[in-house]
Amino acid sequence: MPTDLPPLVWNGGRRRYLLAWERRSDGWWAHLHHLEISPEPAFSLADVFVTVDDWQPAAAVEQIVGQDYSKVGRTNAAPEDCL
Question: I need a labelling partner for 63 at 20 to 30 A (CA). Which of 9, 12, 20, 76 fits?
Fold first, then answer.
């Protein structure tokens, strides 16, 4: 079954989508994404799901067997971001 979803990785005890890799002055970083369920939605059912999007050092990310990482983008950080 084909899917357009990014591959999953392990990070912090949960599965997260790997959106991209970025090389910075201190090494490689992973752009990760996942959804969390809010225990108490603020206003409506739409508030139940909270998106979490952040960068983690590559050492904090583990591959999951069977995932295809070949299409994950790799970029170099802008020089001013590496200072």
Answer: 76
